[in-house]
Design brief:
- This protein is α/β, with parallel strands linked by helices.
- Helix content is about 35%, strand content about 15%.
- The chain contains 17 helices and 13 strands.
- Strands 1, 2, 3, 4, 5, 6, 7, 8, 11, 12 and 13 form an eleven-stranded mixed beta sheet that branches. It has a two-stranded antiparallel sheet with strand order 9-10.
- Strand 11, helix 16 and strand 12 form a beta-alpha-beta unit.
- Helix 11 runs antiparallel to helix 12.
- The protein is globular.
- It starts with about 45 loop residues before the first strand and ends with a strand.
């Protein structure tokens, strides 16, 4: 017999907003953005001939007619009726353009008024691992309403992602749960299992990943973006990049400033080229602490007693934090049977669900119901796990996130690093109890078999002054203090719009009219503040 039904808030958990792994190993996904489970891998293809020298390689255009557009509307996802899709072929290794090729899924929604069309706006999802095609599908209608016919809206699935050529590490299912990929320590802070899993993951990726996995990097995504620009026949692109997509957009603006028009970096991370995802991961503890009070206030709001969405967890916001910490500790000692066969709710499952729920208020009801069910003393009440913690991530999605993070920059390695991680995890657990030491934990990157093929880009103030950074002040994934580092690096190239709200993804994401208006005015009319502003 199944569990006896309880009040509405204990049943029918709505699906979380889809989000990528960004930083399945580091910050909370990916980012906000999108996973595409079960997407088909595109085949690796051979090119016919090679240019004769380096200058020819660099100048060789991708012909515009190589993009054979076909209709691909997704009304079930609320996508634009005029959305089209195509396939772009790019080299696995850009230094060998006539070598093995891979396929990128690309998409567009064309402006319907050529007289009003300014150019093409590239929509970049988060990740690493987020599908740009799916993000365009999900946000295209809103963008059309905001931007009118100013742009063709375009997107691509980065290599390794969505409908593009995929990679694999062939990781066992148990190693692909988020609580494993994100390296949550064992109760008490022990990281022995994390060390063993990280070694195993790095070895399997080296054994099974091949050239495609080796090619997954921000540098290659940026090169692919420029081939897409050329295939579109555009001299310049505008862009809206979110989360990891904002970082990739910043790198593009650094490498190809002459091809940037109006550039929006939304929810961006610290661009320190010496650390990259290492810094993003370490920043998560403070980011979650900054974002948690918004959930606590929502969960203690008297409206919860009448709205039917979820239970009121406490009589005052200050009581929600100790409730969550105590529950996580109890689940560490005694995991609770859930409605998902074979998966018990552990303390780390709860912590992971919390981290993901902080991305936006739409996720709060499911988390509150999970907490209420886990707190129940009724043996017939079983928590309904939210989809993000109920099962393993597809192997190709895990491989992409791991590959990009580990290929982008060299991580500390060796015996001393393991000892340093043990110490750091214990210190981080004490400082940031909500994340229990995971931001300081070891990852497969410490045992990665390949050195970075490219030096990480250093973001500088050299380039056109055409960048707008928009950032929520309380972001659980790309915290405000990290975005200030990007703003500082860009200097007079950028202006910052600071949005006084909580959540990940600002433009068209949190409902802040002031912030949305600033971005819309910039993209449609080139109106950029003379100095940094707050909303």
């Amino acid at each position: 017999m199944g569990p006896r039904l309880k009040p509405k808030y204990l049943a029918d958990v709505p699906t979380y907003r889809s989000k990528s792994l960004l930083l399945a190993l580091s910050t909370a996904a990916a980012i906000s953005p999108l996973i595409v489970p079960g997407a088909q891998a595109a085949p690796v293809r051979q090119a016919a001939s090679a240019p004769q020298d380096a200058s020819a390689r660099q100048a060789a255009p991708t012909p515009q007619d190589a993009l054979a557009w076909t209709p691909c509307p997704r009304p079930d996802l609320g996508g634009p009726a005029t959305q089209e899709c195509a396939t772009l072929t790019v080299p696995v290794d850009h230094a060998v353009p006539a070598g093995p090729q891979l396929s990128l899924a690309v998409s567009r929604v064309r402006s319907e008024d050529p007289a009003k069309r300014r150019g093409a706006l590239l929509v970049l999802a988060g990740g690493p691992g987020g599908s740009g095609v799916q993000r365009l599908t999900q946000r295209g209608t809103k963008l059309q309403a905001r931007l009118g016919d100013a742009y063709d809206l375009v997107a691509l699935d980065p290599r390794g992602t969505g409908g593009s050529t995929r990679a694999t590490c062939r990781l066992p299912s148990a190693d692909r749960h988020l609580t494993a990929l994100r390296s949550w320590p064992a109760p008490g802070g022990n990281i022995d299992a994390n060390i063993e899993r990280s070694r195993r993951t790095a070895a399997l990726c080296a054994e099974n990943g091949g050239p495609v996995l080796r090619s997954l990097s921000t540098a290659n995504q940026v090169r692919d973006m420029d081939l897409f620009r050329r295939a579109l026949g555009e001299r310049k692109l505008s862009a809206w990049g979110t989360s990891y997509g904002a970082y990739a957009a910043a790198v593009y603006a650094q490498k190809y400033p002459q091809h940037t028009d109006r550039w929006v970096l939304d929810s961006v991370a610290d661009p320190d080229p010496a650390h990259l995802a290492r810094t993003w991961m370490r920043n998560t503890g403070q980011a979650v602490e900054d974002a948690f009070p918004a959930f606590a206030a929502w969960a203690a709001d008297p409206a919860r007693e009448t709205d039917g969405l979820a239970p009121r967890l406490a009589q005052h916001p200050a009581l929600v934090r100790p409730l969550v910490l105590a529950l996580a500790a109890r689940l560490d000692r005694a995991p609770k049977e859930s409605t998902t066969p074979g998966t018990r709710l552990t303390g780390n499952h709860l912590r992971q669900a919390l981290q993901n729920a902080l991305y936006g208020q739409a996720n709060h009801p499911a988390l509150a119901r999970l907490i209420a069910a886990a707190s129940s003393t009724d043996p017939e009440v079983r928590p309904v796990l939210t989809p993000d913690i109920a099962g393993p991530v597809p192997d190709a999605d895990a491989a992409t996130t791991i590959g990009v993070i580990c290929n982008d920059v060299r991580w500390p390695e060796g015996r001393g690093t393991v000892a340093a991680h043990r110490r750091a995890v214990l210190a981080d657990r004490a400082r940031y109890p909500l994340t229990a030491g995971f931001p300081a934990n070891i990852t497969p990157c410490s045992f990665w078999k390949w050195a970075p093929a490219d030096e990480p880009a250093r973001i500088t103030s050299s380039g056109p002054s055409n960048i707008l950074v928009v950032q929520n002040r309380r972001d659980p994934s790309t915290p405000y203090f990290g975005a200030l580092k990007m703003r500082e690096a860009l200097g007079d190239r950028a202006r910052l719009v600071s949005v006084n709200t909580t959540g990940h993804g600002s433009y068209l994401g949190t409902g802040n009219a002031c912030g949305d208006a600033r971005v819309t005015a910039f993209l449609t009319g080139g109106v950029r503040p003379g100095s940094d502003v707050s909303c």
